Amino acid sequence: MSQLVEEVVTVACEAGESLLSALERQGHRVEYQCRQGYCGACRLPLADESQPQALTYLRPPLAWHEDNEVLTCCAHASTPVCLKLT
Ligand code: FES
């Protein structure tokens, strides 16, 4: 029987940087495809559900996501954000 391992990481964006780019800069491997907000491959859950206020999308993404998730390729964070990596 396999067990899903979940890692919580804190990521801070530099000016104009997406969460996905910030995660990659910090050495994390995150799944992605379009990097434009329409496939949903980069969707990650927030570790702290009170953090959506810190997130902004430059353009409204087309891919679906829950309130406690973020599309990392097109979201930017004004403060450090804790995300769950699986
Ligand atoms: S990589 Fe496609 S929505 Fe983020």
UniProtKB/TrEMBL annotation:
Transmembrane segments: none annotated. This is 2Fe-2S ferredoxin-type domain-containing protein. Pfam families: Fer2 (PF00111). Residues 1-86 form the 2Fe-2S ferredoxin-type domain. InterPro entries: 2Fe-2S_ferredoxin-like_sf (IPR036010), 2Fe-2S_ferredoxin-type (IPR001041), 2Fe2S_fd_BS (IPR006058), Beta-grasp_dom_sf (IPR012675). It comes from the Bacteria.
